[in-house]
Amino acid sequence: MVVTGAENRSRRVPLTGRRILSIRTQRPVLVTVARACTGRLHWHVCPAPVDGRFTGGPRDGGVQTHTILDSEYLFVVAREPFGQLGEIYLKDTPRYVQTSMVRVGLIGVGGIANHHKPAFERFPDRVQLGGVCDVDEAAAGEFAAAFDVDHWSDYEVFLEETDVDAVDIPLPHHLHYPVAKAALEAGKHVLVEKPFATSLAECLELVELAEERDCRLMVGQMQRFYPPYRALKEAVDRGDLGAIRHARCDALVNQEDMVPPGHWLYDGSMSGGGGIIGYSVHKLDLLRYLLGDVERVVSWEREVNDAFDDAEDYSLGLLEFESGTVADFFVTLSAGAMPYTEMFWLLGDEGAMHTLPEGTQREGYVGLPDPRINAANDPERRKTFETLTAPATDLPSENAFVNEILHFADCIESGAEPISSGRDNLGTMATIEAIYRSAANDGEATTIDDVYADAREALR
């Protein structure tokens, strides 16, 4: 058996320092690695990758033979540019043989794209930027030039012409649905920024399309990939806090400090709403990740600042989870000054967790205050909150955006469902739709089942 899975890609770009191919076996396999053309080819054999690093020592390319034992990995790595990988000969059939580098096309180079950029800069052996698209052709060209890739200004032409496995879509909210739909129809795996789309019906349609096309569909709920929050998830699952009785989340923002009036975030027809869908979506999703699904909602909202058009700049409400936990939330986009920006807490029978800061407002991207935790039944720790560290998580970096993109690539390679898959995120978007519906009906209780039923009816 001859495997040349990286051959086409190696003709297109220099692959210095790239991990080209990985093989894992379910039984011993005799492997011969043959170097071709120019450059040096190294290969590593190890039981499993550790934090994305090789634990086995490098071996020079040329012609080498090795038997991979049960569940071991073979990594083939280019250390110098070369024209063609050559061949890897397998005496027996492995569990899977696949290219380890996922080529991703970026559609949208606005502000949030700069938070995605480090994943492609720091981990080019895992995710390689294969092309860039933005209606602002000059901005697309500038972003693409940093990676020496081509750029486009029309996403439909981009999807037709570019050679990528997947697309990353950090676009304004109203474009998430049409661009993600076009990408799925083109057979591409999709990572779409939060919020998933601007209606639950659109989200349901994309989930069904992804499953029909056998494509991974992931929503960029990056707070699930922040190491301290992953450690908090593990603590909650272990029962460290006991049964969670109450939760709260706040998002206190002066949007004019970040983007001027006239930006699309002020226009509900493009943003899908205001504070709830644009800001609270982060912590509402995080609460679902920690506590499970919401059952019903009551809420109220106000549009106070004239800069907002059909987009709430104040909202508050209550959530009842299926587990019995109750939570309250509040968001404002117009407060002149706040004691903190984002915050949430959990109150359990065995302990509490909070992210209340030290009474100062931080600037810039402020969505990740570190959790602090106590122990209710320990006299020495009951009133002392210690910062929860995350030394044992499986996340490869401290950067949540980087981690979510690497997770996306891993799911493409393995076929696993992402932690923040489109199907999982339906629960977050159903909660948001229920919040808006309750507010439109002056705080009338709205169930998640009702908004699901209406969304499915809308698709008929």
What does this structure look like?
The structure is a single chain. A hairpin with a 3-residue loop joins strand 20 and strand 21. The protein folds into 3 domains: 2-98; 102-220, NAD(P)-binding Rossmann-like Domain (Rossmann fold, 3-Layer(aba) Sandwich), CATH 3.40.50; 224-422 and 431-438, Dihydrodipicolinate Reductase, domain 2, CATH 3.30.360.10. The chain has 12 helices and 24 strands. By secondary structure, it is α+β, with helices and mostly antiparallel strands.
Largest sheet composition: 9 strands, mixed
Count of discrete domains: 3
Strand percentage lies at 25-35%
CATH architecture of the largest domain: 2-Layer Sandwich
Distance between the termini: 48 Å
| CATH class wording of the largest domain | Alpha Beta
Low-confidence runs of at least 5 consecutive residues: 1-20, 34-39, 48-55, 78-99
β-strand number = 24
Radius of gyration: 24 Å
CATH fold-level topology of the largest domain: Dihydrodipicolinate Reductase, domain 2
Structural class of the secondary structure composition?
A: alpha+beta
Count of alpha and pi helical runs? 12
On the 0-100 scale, what is the average pLDDT? 83
Report the helical percentage: 25-40%
Shape estimate: globular
CATH superfamily of the largest domain: Dihydrodipicolinate Reductase, domain 2
Enumerate the strands of the largest sheet in spatial order, edge to edge or round the barrel: 23-22-21-20-16-19-18-17-24
